[in-house]
Amino acid sequence: MIKNDKQYSITKSKRDEFKASLESLSASENNDLLHEIMISSIKSQIDTFEKEIAEYEKLKIEKPKILSLSIENLPDSLIQARIVKGLSHSDLARMVGLKEQQIQRYESNGYASANFERILSVAKSMDVNFEDTKLIINQDPIAVEGYEPCFIKQATHKLQSRKSLLTV
């Protein structure tokens, strides 16, 4: 995820470097397996750069009013909110009453070092509100003949994390 204009500029530059490398490799007449793997890897990295650039540009240009999130994505959502609001790290730090480096540290480690009160303070400083928060209490897995309960629990968790199940 691109978190600021400097990273945005670097990512665009790296994407262009990878595109030049791809052109050079594609012009080569070498068609062995290693060559094809290198081309595939470079294309994959270019795609990743393109997605990150597009996401950052969308946040900066469209400035959405609502960001959908799960609690696991709360750190990324706070960073996205800062980008949408057009705030720098120093702007946010001043609003929260911290040093710029602390905001940079929070963002670099996904707010892992921030306590819940600090996270709420950051959100409140940006005038970000959380609505319709749900707490889902999972029940014991249903017994299925021929399968161990731990297998059913793991399979259910995998399906839920893939968002393959319908939610209420």
Structural commentary:
The chain has three domains: 1-62; 63-131, 434 Repressor (Amino-terminal Domain); 134-168. The protein is flat, with a radius of gyration of 22 Å. The chain contains seven helices and no strands. The chain has 168 residues and is an all-alpha fold. It starts with a helix and ends in a 7-residue tail after the last helix.
Descriptive key words:
168 residues, mainly alpha
Write the layout of secondary structure elements.
Blueprint: H1 5-27, H2 33-62, H3 74-84, H4 89-96, H5 100-108, H6 116-125, H7 149-161
Helix pairs in contact: 1-2, 2-3, 4-5
> Could you give me the name of the CATH homologous superfamily of the largest domain?
lambda repressor-like DNA-binding domains
Query: What is the CATH first-level class name of the largest domain?
Result: Mainly Alpha
Task: Report the sheet with the most strands, covering strand number, pairing sense and barrel closure.
Answer: none
Coarse structural class: mainly alpha
Secondary-structure element order, N to C: HHHHHHH
Average pLDDT reading: 87
Number of helices: 7
CATH topology of the largest domain: 434 Repressor (Amino-terminal Domain)
> How much helicity do the residues have?
55-70%
Q: What is the total domain count?
A: 3
Q: What is the radius of gyration computed over CA atoms, rounded to a whole number of angstroms?
A: 22 Å
Q: What coarse outline follows from CA principal-axis ratios?
A: flat
Strand content: under 5%
User: How far do the termini sit from each other?
Assistant: 30 Å
Number of strands: 0
